[in-house]
Amino acid sequence: MPKAPMQHVCSFCKRLVTIKNQYDMPIFDPQSGFAICKNCIEDIYHFLEAHEQETAEHEKKDFTDALATSLEKTKPHVVKEYLDKYIINQDHAKKILSVAVYNHYKRMKYGYEHSDGTEIEKSNVIMLGPSGCGKTALLSHLSQLLDIPFAVTDASSLTEAGFVGADVEVAVRNLYYAADKDIDRTEHGIIYLDEFDKIARKSGENNSITADPGHEGTQQALLKMLEGSIVEFTARGQRKHPEAPTIKVNTQNILFIVGGAFVGIDKIIEKRLQKSEASIGFGAKVEGENDKPKFDDLLRQVTPQDLMKYGIIPEIIGRLPVICTLETLDEDALLRILTEPVNAPVRQYQKLLEMDNVELEFDDAALRAVAKEAIKRKTGARSLKGIIEDVMLDIMFDIPRSDEPRIVRITEDCITKGAQPEIRPANKQDTPKKTKKTAAKTEE
């Protein structure tokens, strides 16, 4: 006698279901009798799908409204005024970055509000400038102003897939965590690849016959990411293997900014200019050492061809259409950096000693000596705080021994000869004479 088919009532629709296989009643608990038929599961799935679509449309509208507000706050002149508070000089670079960020917001807003088939391409930026000129500082302060996530990744640590090191997807993963694991915000952020010149092809414009895992291969791996593609990566702390759960991020609306010192590119530019201006005979122009163009003048004339000769592959250059150059900081610029910005090194130490009831003074000659020492070290503004730290170490160690009000004066000899700073008690009769620059900034 054939066995009668099993039947059960769906706990949702109360329909009697004839169970021929496990898919007729996908969810069934024999102990409690709870069951859900396949029709109800399909209906629930459609409800969830419709709800997600409706939620996405609401989120899209909210994001578009937020972009309109952000556009007001990120107009080029507003961004530049903000950067002027923290960064000395580099006006040309500030303008380029201000326009790039503003256009990035406008591009996203246009994409959300229009569907006429016109696609505005990304204007990714490549920054060139000597060490310590303010590339990373510019973008660090820019990120504080923006409402979108911003992440910095060291490009020199990246390698192509299959080699020991960090894959290029790490850059997007860093942005994902900077956005507090919000994929929607991640897909509209900004990624800065620092030390980008370190992944230049070792053989320049010529192909290398040996493996180059940290250079050309890395550039090839970055291509699709820069243009816009779906990037998959694992969460931090998880090993990358086929069965590992991955997070997917679309990089189509992510703005990429790459930067580096590009040491030696001035020689490539100079060689190109000499070829174009070369002449022989009695009418040839004879140049002396003083007639040679300076580094900043050469850097401003950089072309995509120069970058290719340096070792950046043509495909990458095509995806970095905006070239931004920064100038070398001279002694006067370094002097201003010490005192003028909101977070100037001198101000930082004055605030630290104020907490110990001590007033800190810097002679003008001392500040100029710090600037000269930074130029000798050839590290730009990066070494300013380190030079002052060396001088201030003993003072900051001994000052907390007493709570008495005092005045500490840093002279030129403290910087150049290692002399001890002058310390005297502070009282009404002995009003300290502040330097013009330090006093003016303190009164603000």
TrEMBL record:
Q: Which residues form the Clp ATPase C-terminal domain?
A: 329-423
Q: Where is the composition biased (Basic residues)?
A: 434-444
Domain called AAA+ ATPase: residue spans? 121-348
In Gene Ontology terms, what is a biological process of this protein? proteolysis involved in protein catabolic process
Q: Note the InterPro entries from the entry.
A: AAA+_ATPase, ATP-dep_Clp_protease_ClpX, ATPase_AAA_core, Clp_ATPase_C, Clp_protease_ATP-bd_su_ClpX, P-loop_NTPase
Ranges for region Disordered: 418-444
> What's any one GO cellular component for it?
HslUV protease complex
What SUPFAM superfamilies does the record tag this protein with? Answer: P-loop containing nucleoside triphosphate hydrolases
Tell me which Pfam families the record gives. Answer: AAA_2 (PF07724), ClpB_D2-small (PF10431)
Which UniProt keywords are present, listed alphabetically?
ATP-binding, Chaperone, Hydrolase, Nucleotide-binding, Protease, Zinc
| PANTHER family per record | ATP-DEPENDENT CLP PROTEASE ATP-BINDING SUBUNIT CLPX-LIKE, MITOCHONDRIAL, ATP-DEPENDENT CLP PROTEASE ATP-BINDING SUBUNIT CLPX-LIKE, MITOCHONDRIAL-RELATED
Stated name of the protein: ATP-dependent Clp protease ATP-binding subunit ClpX
Q: What is the lineage of its organism?
A: Bacteria, Bacillati, Bacillota, Negativicutes, Selenomonadales
